[in-house]
Amino acid sequence: MNLTDVLYEKKNGIAKITINRPKVYNAFRARTIDELIWSFRDAWDDNRIGAVILTGAGDKAFCTGGDQKEKGNEGGYDYSGGLGGGIGLEVENLHQTIRNIPKPVIAAVNGYAIGGGHVLHVICDLTIAASTAKFGQSGPKVGSYDAGYGSAYLARIVGEKKAREIWYLCEQYSAEEAQEMGLINKIVPPEQLQEAAEAWAEKILQKSPTALKVLKYSFNADSANIQGISQLSMGSLAMFYNTPESEEGKNAFIEKRPVDFSKFRR
Ligand code: S0N
Protein backbone atom coordinates (compact mmCIF):
# COMPACT_ATOMS: atom_id res chain seq x y z
CA MET A 1 0.00 0.00 0.00
CA ASN A 2 1.20 3.50 -0.81
CA LEU A 3 1.20 5.14 2.63
CA THR A 4 0.59 8.90 2.83
CA ASP A 5 -0.91 9.39 6.31
CA VAL A 6 1.09 6.81 8.26
CA LEU A 7 4.78 5.97 8.63
CA TYR A 8 5.47 2.26 8.97
CA GLU A 9 8.82 0.73 9.84
CA LYS A 10 9.98 -2.70 10.97
CA LYS A 11 13.28 -3.18 12.78
CA ASN A 12 14.70 -5.92 15.00
CA GLY A 13 11.36 -7.63 15.60
CA ILE A 14 9.46 -4.39 16.36
CA ALA A 15 6.92 -2.70 14.07
CA LYS A 16 6.45 1.02 14.57
CA ILE A 17 3.29 2.68 13.23
CA THR A 18 3.27 6.49 13.30
CA ILE A 19 0.20 8.59 12.51
CA ASN A 20 1.70 11.28 10.30
CA ARG A 21 -0.68 14.23 9.99
CA PRO A 22 0.99 16.68 12.40
CA LYS A 23 -0.64 19.78 10.80
CA VAL A 24 -4.00 18.61 12.15
CA TYR A 25 -2.54 17.18 15.36
CA ASN A 26 -2.61 13.69 13.83
CA ALA A 27 -6.39 13.67 13.44
CA PHE A 28 -7.51 10.81 11.23
CA ARG A 29 -9.49 10.73 8.01
CA ALA A 30 -10.77 7.60 6.21
CA ARG A 31 -7.45 7.05 4.45
CA THR A 32 -5.52 7.25 7.74
CA ILE A 33 -7.67 4.53 9.26
CA ASP A 34 -7.26 2.31 6.19
CA GLU A 35 -3.48 2.74 6.33
CA LEU A 36 -3.42 1.95 10.05
CA ILE A 37 -5.40 -1.24 9.47
CA TRP A 38 -3.06 -2.20 6.62
CA SER A 39 0.02 -1.62 8.81
CA PHE A 40 -1.33 -3.59 11.75
CA ARG A 41 -2.27 -6.45 9.41
CA ASP A 42 1.22 -6.46 7.93
CA ALA A 43 2.74 -6.62 11.43
CA TRP A 44 0.26 -9.40 12.29
CA ASP A 45 1.27 -11.46 9.23
CA ASP A 46 5.02 -10.98 9.65
CA ASN A 47 6.46 -13.71 11.89
CA ARG A 48 9.59 -11.66 12.50
CA ILE A 49 7.51 -9.09 14.39
CA GLY A 50 6.80 -9.68 18.09
CA ALA A 51 5.56 -6.29 19.30
CA VAL A 52 4.01 -3.17 17.78
CA ILE A 53 4.39 0.48 18.80
CA LEU A 54 1.70 3.02 17.86
CA THR A 55 2.67 6.68 18.09
CA GLY A 56 2.14 10.10 16.50
CA ALA A 57 4.44 12.33 14.45
CA GLY A 58 5.83 15.49 16.03
CA ASP A 59 5.68 16.63 19.63
CA LYS A 60 2.16 18.04 19.79
CA ALA A 61 -0.16 15.06 19.44
CA PHE A 62 -0.51 11.30 19.49
CA CYS A 63 -3.90 11.55 17.78
CA THR A 64 -6.88 13.91 18.14
CA GLY A 65 -9.53 11.59 16.65
CA GLY A 66 -11.67 12.25 13.61
CA ASP A 67 -10.52 15.11 11.37
CA GLN A 68 -13.33 17.61 11.85
CA LYS A 69 -12.42 19.44 8.64
CA GLU A 70 -12.71 16.26 6.55
CA LYS A 71 -16.19 15.36 7.78
CA GLY A 72 -18.50 15.18 4.79
CA ASN A 73 -15.66 15.46 2.26
CA GLU A 74 -15.37 12.73 -0.33
CA GLY A 75 -12.52 10.35 0.46
CA GLY A 76 -12.03 12.04 3.79
CA TYR A 77 -14.79 11.35 6.22
CA ASP A 78 -18.20 11.00 4.70
CA TYR A 79 -21.45 9.33 5.56
CA SER A 80 -21.65 7.08 2.53
CA GLY A 81 -21.85 3.78 4.35
CA GLY A 82 -19.68 0.80 3.57
CA LEU A 83 -17.69 -1.17 6.09
CA GLY A 84 -17.26 1.86 8.34
CA GLY A 85 -20.73 1.22 9.76
CA GLY A 86 -22.06 4.20 7.85
CA ILE A 87 -19.69 6.83 9.26
CA GLY A 88 -17.26 6.50 6.36
CA LEU A 89 -14.42 5.58 8.72
CA GLU A 90 -13.36 2.00 9.44
CA VAL A 91 -12.76 2.87 13.11
CA GLU A 92 -14.57 -0.18 14.44
CA ASN A 93 -12.50 -2.42 12.17
CA LEU A 94 -9.28 -0.72 13.39
CA HIS A 95 -10.28 -1.23 17.03
CA GLN A 96 -10.87 -4.94 16.36
CA THR A 97 -7.54 -5.23 14.55
CA ILE A 98 -5.61 -3.71 17.47
CA ARG A 99 -7.43 -5.98 19.89
CA ASN A 100 -7.06 -9.12 17.79
CA ILE A 101 -3.48 -8.84 16.54
CA PRO A 102 -1.83 -11.62 18.58
CA LYS A 103 1.08 -9.42 19.62
CA PRO A 104 1.25 -6.75 22.33
CA VAL A 105 0.62 -3.20 21.08
CA ILE A 106 2.27 -0.34 22.99
CA ALA A 107 0.90 3.20 22.61
CA ALA A 108 3.70 5.77 22.87
CA VAL A 109 1.71 8.94 23.62
CA ASN A 110 3.74 11.97 22.61
CA GLY A 111 1.17 14.75 23.12
CA TYR A 112 -2.60 15.08 22.93
CA ALA A 113 -4.55 11.81 22.98
CA ILE A 114 -8.04 13.25 22.49
CA GLY A 115 -11.37 11.92 21.19
CA GLY A 116 -10.99 8.94 18.87
CA GLY A 117 -7.23 9.31 19.44
CA HIS A 118 -7.76 8.73 23.14
CA VAL A 119 -9.79 5.62 22.38
CA LEU A 120 -6.87 4.28 20.32
CA HIS A 121 -4.45 4.39 23.26
CA VAL A 122 -7.12 2.96 25.58
CA ILE A 123 -7.45 -0.08 23.31
CA CYS A 124 -3.68 -0.66 23.04
CA ASP A 125 -2.30 -3.27 25.46
CA LEU A 126 0.06 -0.83 27.17
CA THR A 127 0.51 2.95 27.23
CA ILE A 128 3.75 4.85 27.84
CA ALA A 129 3.33 8.62 27.90
CA ALA A 130 5.60 11.62 27.61
CA SER A 131 5.33 13.78 30.73
CA THR A 132 3.84 16.46 28.44
CA ALA A 133 1.01 14.22 27.14
CA LYS A 134 -2.62 15.22 27.62
CA PHE A 135 -5.57 12.85 27.71
CA GLY A 136 -9.31 13.29 27.26
CA GLN A 137 -12.51 12.83 25.30
CA SER A 138 -14.19 15.66 23.44
CA GLY A 139 -17.06 13.97 21.57
CA PRO A 140 -19.94 15.71 23.40
CA LYS A 141 -18.25 19.06 22.63
CA VAL A 142 -18.11 18.40 18.88
CA GLY A 143 -21.31 16.38 18.41
CA SER A 144 -19.81 12.90 18.44
CA TYR A 145 -19.22 9.89 20.66
CA ASP A 146 -17.62 6.48 20.86
CA ALA A 147 -20.08 4.67 23.09
CA GLY A 148 -18.35 1.29 22.61
CA TYR A 149 -14.74 0.73 23.63
CA GLY A 150 -14.54 4.51 24.20
CA SER A 151 -16.98 4.34 27.11
CA ALA A 152 -17.58 0.72 28.22
CA TYR A 153 -13.96 -0.44 28.00
CA LEU A 154 -12.69 2.85 29.43
CA ALA A 155 -14.95 2.26 32.46
CA ARG A 156 -13.28 -1.11 33.04
CA ILE A 157 -9.92 0.62 33.16
CA VAL A 158 -10.63 3.74 35.24
CA GLY A 159 -13.96 2.80 36.87
CA GLU A 160 -17.49 3.98 36.11
CA LYS A 161 -17.37 7.31 37.96
CA LYS A 162 -14.13 8.46 36.34
CA ALA A 163 -15.20 7.29 32.87
CA ARG A 164 -18.44 9.24 33.19
CA GLU A 165 -16.49 12.32 34.33
CA ILE A 166 -14.12 12.00 31.36
CA TRP A 167 -16.98 11.91 28.84
CA TYR A 168 -19.46 14.29 30.47
CA LEU A 169 -16.99 17.09 31.28
CA CYS A 170 -14.56 16.64 28.35
CA GLU A 171 -11.64 17.96 30.41
CA GLN A 172 -7.99 17.26 29.73
CA TYR A 173 -5.85 15.24 32.12
CA SER A 174 -2.09 15.39 32.60
CA ALA A 175 0.13 12.32 32.35
CA GLU A 176 0.38 12.26 36.17
CA GLU A 177 -3.42 12.34 36.52
CA ALA A 178 -3.75 9.64 33.87
CA GLN A 179 -1.31 7.41 35.73
CA GLU A 180 -3.12 8.00 39.03
CA MET A 181 -6.38 6.74 37.51
CA GLY A 182 -4.70 3.66 35.98
CA LEU A 183 -5.18 4.93 32.42
CA ILE A 184 -1.50 4.62 31.48
CA ASN A 185 1.40 2.41 32.53
CA LYS A 186 4.45 4.69 32.62
CA ILE A 187 5.58 8.31 32.24
CA VAL A 188 8.93 9.34 30.78
CA PRO A 189 10.51 12.64 29.70
CA PRO A 190 9.41 13.48 26.12
CA GLU A 191 12.89 12.94 24.66
CA GLN A 192 12.98 9.41 26.09
CA LEU A 193 9.54 8.30 24.89
CA GLN A 194 10.45 6.34 21.76
CA GLU A 195 13.44 4.74 23.47
CA ALA A 196 11.26 3.70 26.44
CA ALA A 197 8.62 2.17 24.15
CA GLU A 198 11.31 0.28 22.24
CA ALA A 199 12.85 -0.95 25.52
CA TRP A 200 9.49 -2.43 26.58
CA ALA A 201 9.00 -3.93 23.12
CA GLU A 202 12.46 -5.53 23.38
CA LYS A 203 11.52 -7.04 26.77
CA ILE A 204 8.37 -8.43 25.17
CA LEU A 205 10.46 -9.98 22.37
CA GLN A 206 12.24 -12.10 25.00
CA LYS A 207 8.95 -13.73 26.06
CA SER A 208 7.08 -16.74 24.67
CA PRO A 209 4.92 -15.51 21.72
CA THR A 210 2.33 -18.23 22.36
CA ALA A 211 2.03 -17.31 26.04
CA LEU A 212 1.65 -13.63 25.12
CA LYS A 213 -0.96 -14.41 22.46
CA VAL A 214 -3.08 -16.55 24.77
CA LEU A 215 -2.81 -14.00 27.60
CA LYS A 216 -3.86 -11.19 25.26
CA TYR A 217 -6.87 -13.20 24.07
CA SER A 218 -7.81 -14.10 27.64
CA PHE A 219 -7.76 -10.40 28.63
CA ASN A 220 -9.84 -9.67 25.51
CA ALA A 221 -12.35 -12.45 26.21
CA ASP A 222 -13.51 -10.76 29.40
CA SER A 223 -14.50 -7.59 27.49
CA ALA A 224 -15.51 -9.26 24.20
CA ASN A 225 -19.17 -8.25 24.54
CA ILE A 226 -18.10 -4.64 24.02
CA GLN A 227 -17.66 -5.37 20.31
CA GLY A 228 -21.44 -5.54 19.93
CA ILE A 229 -21.86 -2.31 21.88
CA SER A 230 -19.24 -0.74 19.63
CA GLN A 231 -21.12 -1.78 16.50
CA LEU A 232 -24.31 -0.25 17.89
CA SER A 233 -22.43 2.92 18.73
CA MET A 234 -20.86 3.31 15.28
CA GLY A 235 -24.16 2.45 13.60
CA SER A 236 -26.04 5.12 15.54
CA LEU A 237 -23.22 7.63 14.99
CA ALA A 238 -23.89 7.31 11.26
CA MET A 239 -27.44 8.52 11.89
CA PHE A 240 -26.33 11.26 14.30
CA TYR A 241 -23.53 12.81 12.23
CA ASN A 242 -25.61 14.69 9.69
CA THR A 243 -28.13 16.07 12.18
CA PRO A 244 -28.17 19.81 13.00
CA GLU A 245 -27.05 18.97 16.58
CA SER A 246 -23.93 17.13 15.47
CA GLU A 247 -23.21 19.74 12.77
CA GLU A 248 -23.35 22.50 15.42
CA GLY A 249 -20.54 20.77 17.35
CA LYS A 250 -18.35 20.28 14.28
CA ASN A 251 -18.96 23.80 12.91
CA ALA A 252 -18.24 25.48 16.26
CA PHE A 253 -14.85 23.70 16.37
CA ILE A 254 -13.97 24.66 12.78
CA GLU A 255 -15.18 28.26 13.20
CA LYS A 256 -13.35 28.50 16.57
CA ARG A 257 -16.47 29.79 18.34
CA PRO A 258 -18.37 28.69 21.47
CA VAL A 259 -20.77 25.85 20.80
CA ASP A 260 -24.52 26.24 21.50
CA PHE A 261 -26.44 22.99 21.91
CA SER A 262 -29.24 24.58 23.98
CA LYS A 263 -31.95 24.25 21.34
CA PHE A 264 -31.36 20.49 21.06
CA ARG A 265 -32.31 19.79 24.68
CA ARG A 266 -35.57 17.88 24.64
C1 S0N B 1 -6.41 18.76 20.64
C2 S0N B 1 -6.82 20.16 21.02
C3 S0N B 1 -7.35 20.20 22.46
C4 S0N B 1 -5.58 21.09 20.91
O1 S0N B 1 -5.93 22.42 21.21
P1 S0N B 1 -4.90 23.60 20.90
O2 S0N B 1 -3.58 23.33 21.53
O3 S0N B 1 -5.61 24.88 21.27
O4 S0N B 1 -4.62 23.55 19.31
P2 S0N B 1 -5.65 23.87 18.13
O5 S0N B 1 -5.38 25.23 17.62
O6 S0N B 1 -7.05 23.58 18.51
O7 S0N B 1 -5.20 22.76 17.06
C5 S0N B 1 -4.03 22.92 16.28
C6 S0N B 1 -4.38 22.67 14.83
O8 S0N B 1 -4.79 21.32 14.69
C7 S0N B 1 -6.13 21.28 14.19
N1 S0N B 1 -6.84 20.14 14.77
C8 S0N B 1 -6.71 19.65 16.02
N2 S0N B 1 -7.52 18.61 16.20
C9 S0N B 1 -8.20 18.43 15.03
C10 S0N B 1 -9.18 17.52 14.60
N3 S0N B 1 -9.65 16.52 15.40
N4 S0N B 1 -9.65 17.66 13.35
C11 S0N B 1 -9.19 18.60 12.54
N5 S0N B 1 -8.25 19.51 12.87
C12 S0N B 1 -7.77 19.42 14.12
C13 S0N B 1 -6.73 22.61 14.60
O9 S0N B 1 -7.85 22.95 13.82
C14 S0N B 1 -5.56 23.54 14.39
O10 S0N B 1 -5.39 23.82 13.03
P3 S0N B 1 -5.46 25.37 12.49
O11 S0N B 1 -4.39 26.11 13.25
O12 S0N B 1 -5.20 25.23 11.03
O13 S0N B 1 -6.84 25.86 12.81
C15 S0N B 1 -7.91 20.71 20.07
O14 S0N B 1 -7.35 20.89 18.80
C16 S0N B 1 -9.11 19.84 19.95
O15 S0N B 1 -9.96 19.83 20.84
N6 S0N B 1 -9.24 19.16 18.82
C17 S0N B 1 -10.46 18.45 18.43
C18 S0N B 1 -10.47 17.08 19.01
C19 S0N B 1 -11.78 16.41 18.68
O16 S0N B 1 -12.84 16.97 18.90
N7 S0N B 1 -11.72 15.18 18.15
C20 S0N B 1 -12.84 14.35 17.81
C21 S0N B 1 -13.57 13.97 19.07
N8 S0N B 1 -14.42 12.84 18.97
C22 S0N B 1 -14.76 12.10 20.12
O17 S0N B 1 -14.40 12.40 21.23
C23 S0N B 1 -15.66 10.91 20.01
C24 S0N B 1 -15.75 10.32 18.70
C25 S0N B 1 -14.84 9.18 18.43
O18 S0N B 1 -14.15 8.65 19.24
C26 S0N B 1 -14.88 8.76 17.06
C27 S0N B 1 -15.47 7.54 16.79
C28 S0N B 1 -15.62 7.15 15.48
C29 S0N B 1 -15.18 7.97 14.47
C30 S0N B 1 -14.56 9.18 14.75
C31 S0N B 1 -14.41 9.58 16.06
C32 S0N B 1 -13.78 10.91 16.32
O19 S0N B 1 -12.81 10.98 17.07
O20 S0N B 1 -14.26 11.90 15.77
Automatic annotation (TrEMBL):
**Keywords assigned:** Lyase, Menaquinone biosynthesis
Q: Where is this site: Important for catalysis?
A: 77, 241
EC top class named in words = lyase
What EC number(s) does its UniProt record assign?
Answer: 4.1.3.36
Under the heading Gene3D superfamilies, the entry gives: 2-enoyl-CoA Hydratase, Chain A, domain 1 (3.90.226.10), Lyase 2-enoyl-coa Hydratase, Chain A, domain 2 (1.10.12.10)
Q: Where does substrate bind?
A: 64-68, 77, 112-116, 144, 241, 256
The family database entries (SUPFAM superfamilies) matched by this protein are listed as: ClpP/crotonase
Q: Which is one Pfam family of this protein?
A: ECH_1
Concerning CDD domains, the annotation shows:
crotonase-like (cd06558)
The residues forming a coiled coil are: none
Presence of keyword Lyase: yes
| Pathway assignment | Quinol/quinone metabolism; menaquinone biosynthesis; Quinol/quinone metabolism; 1,4-dihydroxy-2-naphthoate biosynthesis; 1,4-dihydroxy-2-naphthoate from chorismate: step 6/7
Can you state which reaction this protein catalyses?
Answer: 2-succinylbenzoyl-CoA + H(+) = 1,4-dihydroxy-2-naphthoyl-CoA + H2O
Query: Which family does the record claim for this protein?
Result: Belongs to the enoyl-CoA hydratase/isomerase family. MenB subfamily.
PANTHER family, alphabetically? 1,4-DIHYDROXY-2-NAPHTHOYL-COA SYNTHASE, PEROXISOMAL, NUCLEOSIDE-DIPHOSPHATE-SUGAR EPIMERASE
Task: Describe the function of this protein.
Answer: Converts o-succinylbenzoyl-CoA (OSB-CoA) to 1,4-dihydroxy-2-naphthoyl-CoA (DHNA-CoA).
Please report the name of this protein according to its UniProt entry: 1,4-dihydroxy-2-naphthoyl-CoA synthase
**Record organism:** Cytobacillus purgationiresistens
Its taxonomic path starts at: Bacteria, Bacillati, Bacillota, Bacilli, Bacillales
What is the primary gene name for this protein? menB
